[in-house]
Structure formats: structure tokens, C-alpha cells
Hints:
Layout: H1 3-14, E1 34-38, E2 42-46, E3 53-55, H2 58-82
Helix pairs in contact: 1-2
Amino acid sequence: xxxxxxxxxxxxxxxxxxxxxxxxxxxxxxxxxxxxxxxxxxxxxxxxxxxxxxxxxxxxxxxxxxxxxxxxxxxxxxxxxxxx
Length: 84
């Protein structure tokens, strides 16, 4: 998985209104974490309001991808069921 794909997964997850967003480990009232590319550590999650950084693994990203897609699929199925 390249950095572009990792960033896309995090951004998609963070924009999903039906899942709990990834938040700062120091202060949960800060804005949601954003993915950044670090030339030494790969893609990290960064708090835009403080110096908090969190490393992420490919396994964690696959889990986020599954959660995001499953939730979005469920919402679409629910809405389609309502329209019938």
C-alpha cells in the first residue's frame, strides 16, 4: 500500500459521518486527526491543533477501510430499502 492509498483511506474514513473519527490522544476536543506523510516514518496521523502524532500500521488501515466501506454500504442499502 503506497502513501497515496493510505492517505485516501484515512481521509475517506474521517469524512464518513457514520463512524467515530480518529481524534487527538491528548485532547479529544481538538479537531480530527489528519494524515501526513513523513519521509522517515511513512504516513502518520497528526493533530492539527497540537503536536500529537500517531503512527499507523497497514493492518490498522485495512481495518479502517473495511469499517468505512461496510458502514457506507449499509447506509446505501438502508436508504434503498426506504425508497421501495
